[in-house]
Amino acid sequence: MKISNNCYGCTACFYSCKFSGIDIKKDNCGFRCADINNNCIKCNKCQSVCNSKLDLNIPIEVYALKNKNKDIRNTSSSGGYIYELSKYVISNGGVVFGACFTGDFKVKHMCIDKVEDIYMMQGSKYTESDLDRTFEMVKDNLEKGIYVLYTGTPCQINGLKKYLKNVNTEHLLTCDNVCHGVVSPLIFEEYKKMLEKEYDSKLKSFTFRYKDGKRTQNVKASFENNKEYIGLCKNDIFYKIFFKNIGYRESCYNCEFSKIKRVSDITVGDFWGIERSISNFDDKYGVSLLLNNTDKAMEIFDKIKDKFDVVKSNIDDCLQPNLISPTPKGYKNEIFWEEFRNNGLEKGVELLDE
Ligand SMILES: Cc1cc2nc3c(=O)[nH]c(=O)nc-3n(C[C@H](O)[C@H](O)[C@H](O)COP(=O)(O)OP(=O)(O)OC[C@H]3O[C@@H](n4cnc5c(N)ncnc54)[C@H](O)[C@@H]3O)c2cc1C
Questions:
Q1: Best substitution site from 71, 177, 208, 252 to test ligand 1's pocket, by max atoms within 8 Å of Cβ?
Q2: Is residue 312 part of a domain?
Q3: Among the four 14, 32, 123, 318, which has the fewest Cβ within 10 Å?
Q4: For residues 138 and 135, what is the distance between their CA atoms, to the nearest angstrom?
Q5: Ligand 1 atom closest to Cα of 107?
Q6: Is residue 232 part of a domain?
Q7: d(C-alpha 45, C-alpha 42), whole Å
Q8: What is the DSSP letter of 324?
Q9: CB-defined site of ligand 1, < 6 Å
């Protein structure tokens, strides 16, 4: 039985249950959802955690920024803000949680405590990340007085903060992204299989954010046989699905976090429309939008701002659709799923082209 009709898969209810009455199961689109099992004693604790509302923050400062180190910017999605944030936290004895690719290119939240490992978290992965048991790990670290940075989508941060409601979070810093939504892990699995079949080899590396000097959003995959695939965002099959708003988690289409008020200390994104608001700043290798939503965010920005070329901006100039409302569901969503299930990924995508 479901806990919510708009489950974000945030896992907060799972941890709130002392009776192991909740399973996190995959639904028929491959998304992780909370499901009540037979251990449930109907205490409703999970419902109250799920339905509780957190105070949101109005951004205090808005910046456009680019990491001065071109290599770091190149391997990041936009301007490479999260890299320096992570480095600062780790260099001060802290740990960082974020979404990484596993050995078989599934997306999963992990914890790192070494600067050399930050590369694993760099780059947006446009499919749902498995949070695994990271919320528990955050709690353990905070209880030991360790500084924690948790990065993720706004709904994931919302879940984490609900779970930590009775924990001292003085040493917790949260960073979310402006979020268009996550595509089904089932679709991403089929997409990887399709590439591996086409290139007759296993994937060796993969990024959704290969920067070619014109765009910052292309796929680049390399294979064990040293072949390489570069998928321009207008032609690549995964991006066709993503940009047509197909195959997202149902809660993404109803997302309550697609707005200016933010659940996290820090919000990052791609600075959309930068060429209109700040001339000569965009060099086509990525500009981060940074929203400092709390005093904690401003303090840390002050410590690391020298690493960036920075221009102060304002909310009006950085507005983009997902800071206003959720992504609308693509009108071919249902027929895509049907075709995908019956005849596979490529047939499903053919329908989108018609
Ligand atoms: C699913 C998704 C949708 C996005 N939609 C938009 C959008 O509509 N508009 C916009 O301006 N920006 C969007 N972004 C944010 C943008 O792509 C960059 O992540 C952001 O600009 C930060 O870039 P960076 O260069 O500072 O850091 P990067 O190094 O690129 O950031 C990597 C960080 O992103 C987190 N991350 C990556 N993939 C996931 C995932 N699947 N789930 C949770 N966290 C993840 C990691 O934990 C890591 O800390 C989206 C990001 C994601 C993950």
A1: 177
A2: yes
A3: 123
A4: 5
A5: 41
A6: yes
A7: 8
A8: T
A9: 76-83, 98-99, 107, 121-127, 129, 151-153, 177-180, 182, 268-270, 272, 288-289, 320, 322
Residues 237 and 344 in one domain: yes
Q: For the segment 18-43, what is each residue's pLDDT rounded down to a tens digit?
A: 999 999 999 999 999 999 999 999 99
Q: Full-prediction pTM beyond 0.90?
A: yes
pLDDT of residue 59 exceeding 90, the answer is: yes
Which tokens hold the place of 102? 């596993």
Among 303, 235, 237, 293, smallest CA distance to 269 is for 293
Q: Which residue, judged by its Cα, is nearest atom 16 of ligand 1?
A: 269
Contact between residue 141 and residue 148 where contact means Cβ atoms under 8 Å apart: yes
Give nearest CA residue, ligand 1 atom 21.
269
Total tally of structural domains belonging to the chain:
3
Do 257 and 238 sit in the same domain of this protein?
no
Distance 177 CA to ligand 1 centre (A): 5
Per residue in 270-304, is it b (16+ CB within 10 Å) or e — as a string?
bbbebeebbeebbeebbbbbbbbbbebbeebbeee
Instruction: Decide: helix, strand or coil at residue 332.
Output: coil
Rounded to an integer, what distance in angstroms lies between the CA atom of residue 231 and that of residue 246?
A: 18
Q: Are strands 107-112 and 95-101 parallel, antiparallel or unpaired?
A: antiparallel
* 118 shares a domain with 255: yes
Query: Same structural domain for residues 257 and 138?
Result: yes
Q: Which of 163, 155, 176, 162 is nearest to 248 (CA)?
A: 155
354: its two tokens: 């018609």
Pairwise CA distance, residues 66 & 9, whole Å: 33
Q: What is the CA radius of gyration of the chain?
A: 20
At 309-352, the pLDDT tens digits run 999 999 999 999 999 999 999 999 999 999 999 999 999 999 99
Q: With both helix axes pointing from N to C terminus, report the angle between 154-163 and 134-143 in degrees, rounded to the nearest 10.
A: 50
State the pairing for strand pair 95-101/148-152.
Answer: parallel
Domain carrying residue 27: 12-51
